[in-house]
Design brief:
Elements lengths: L6 E4 L5 H12 L3 E4 L4 H9 L7 E3 L7 H15 L4 E4 L14 H29 L2 E5 L12 H20 L5 E7 L2 E2 L1 H11 L2 H9 L8 E2 H12 L10 E4 L3 H7 L6
Parallel strand pairs: 1-2, 1-4, 2-3, 4-5, 5-6, 6-9, 7-8
Length: about 260
């Protein structure tokens, strides 16, 4: 895959999967605008990255439409255009439905769904000009429910539905796809594992029991999938929600079935 001098914006690019995506694009020669919630978080992330001459800071909170415009404007100004948009910024949280409140609803929906919409809206002209690509970060929870995750599931299900609508609306100029990760080794998942089982190792063992590949994935594996969906090798791929879940959904679908 050739990304030499491609112009890329990655929202939520300072940590976790987003950080891995930024690093992978840089390795492949791209110029990358890195978004984080504020200038300090972006500055700290950029300081640790190689090839800083190919990095543009694009701070802002994707839960705000005005910030989405500022993020895209910073990327366009620093990169001189845009070839690839990765809508990765996200927010989680949950619990029993009766315990959830409007503040959590607003934070999760605004970050995951509204942010994806408005970053895309403001990047459209540049992406049409470059015949570019969009990758939206969804989740296995977009297609498989989980107790205590109703708001998160709704937000990511919305991302998948919006991806399909955009693939039709923006064709043939822009390809739009979604990636649906399963359990990925990030600081957020590590914290969840500790809450579940008392340690990261024990929590990951529990999480892996429903995964046919038997393990939690590395963030770099999700970056590889994003680069594929962004690349010319996926030139006839648009409108899909690609599962990268180690077979989790397939395993649940097949559980209890008998071979004929």
């Amino acid at each position: 895959m050739n990304f030499q001098d491609k112009r890329v914006l990655v929202t939520g690019g300072t940590r976790g999967i987003g950080r891995a995506i930024v690093e992978k694009f840089l390795e492949e020669g791209a110029r990358v605008a890195v978004n984080g919630r504020n200038a300090d978080s972006v500055g700290a992330a950029v300081a640790d990255l190689p090839d800083r001459d190919r990095i543009v800071a694009a701070p802002g909170d994707t839960s705000s439409a005005a910030d989405c415009k500022a993020i895209v404007d910073a990327a366009l100004s620093g990169l001189g255009g845009l070839d690839i948009l990765v809508n990765n910024a996200g927010s989680g949280g949950g619990g029993p439905t009766e315990d959830l409140d409007e503040a959590l609803w607003d934070r999760v929906i605004d970050t995951n769904l509204k942010g994806t919409f408005f970053c895309t809206k403001y990047a459209l002209d540049a992406l049409r000009e470059s015949k570019g690509a969009i990758v939206n970060m969804a989740s296995v929870r977009a297609v498989q429910g989980a107790a205590g995750a109703s708001i998160y599931c709704a937000s990511k299900g919305g991302v998948v539905a919006m991806t399909k609508a955009w693939a039709v609306e923006f064709a043939p100029d822009i390809r739009v796809n979604a990636l649906c990760p399963g359990a990925i080794d990030t600081d957020m998942l590590q914290a969840l594992a500790v809450r579940m089982a008392g340690s990261v190792e024990a929590g990951y063992e529990t999480m892996s029991q429903g995964v046919p590949l038997g393990r939690v994935a590395h963030a770099s594996e999700m970056a590889d999938a994003v680069l594929y969906l962004s690349s010319d090798q996926a030139s006839y791929v648009t409108g899909i929600a690609m599962l990268a879940d180690g077979g989790m959904v397939a395993g649940v679908a097949g559980r209890g079935q008998k071979a004929v």
